[in-house]
Amino acid sequence: MITLTDRLSPLWNRVKARYARWEQRCVARFAHWPVGRRWVTFVLLPTLVLCCGGTVVGVPTVWVLRETVEASRGAPAPDAAASEYLMALGYNNDEGLLAILDNDRQDELLAGWRAYRKAMDTTDPPPARLDFAGLTVGPVDDDQAEVTTDVSATWWHTEGRAQFYKSEAHTWRFKTREDNGWQVVAVQAPVWCGGYVRLDACEQG
């Protein structure tokens, strides 16, 4: 008599083999996860959902997994990652920001980004954007590179007549790492209040 276990065994073996190949190619970023956690997340749960819910549930599960991996891929180059970080900061738009933040430090880096943006917003008035020209990429060593660029802040005033003001440029330093795309690992940013603007131009509290 053929049991359910006998029927599922070939499917299970194929799933394990495909998972092993996929992990080797694409998920070095998950290497720090315990093996058990990786199996539960990427093999057991999708398999159970597929078996219990059929393709109606299984297809969305595969789609979510694929989109999760795609969303964690970084920029094509170190300077592109730094540029995206600064553009997002200057225009206060964090859409797509997580993709260029190091997967292991996303919470920390996102909190730092938000804190800096909050400091910018306390300025009276807040800046219109951040300006930077060339980005210098240092030597790539062990899939890591430092990016530096001089950044200035720009204000526009339209009360009465249009006025334009640009701050002194200050140097930003980014540590980036290549992991299926370049991501920002650390940011060394000049202070906003007392650096870009006078302390008395920042609202307190």
UniProtKB/TrEMBL annotation:
Keywords: Membrane, Transmembrane, Transmembrane helix. The chain crosses the membrane at residues 39-65. It comes from the Bacteria. The keyword Transmembrane applies. The keyword Membrane applies. This is SnoaL-like domain-containing protein. It comes from Paractinoplanes rishiriensis. The lineage of its organism: Bacteria, Bacillati, Actinomycetota, Actinomycetes, Micromonosporales.
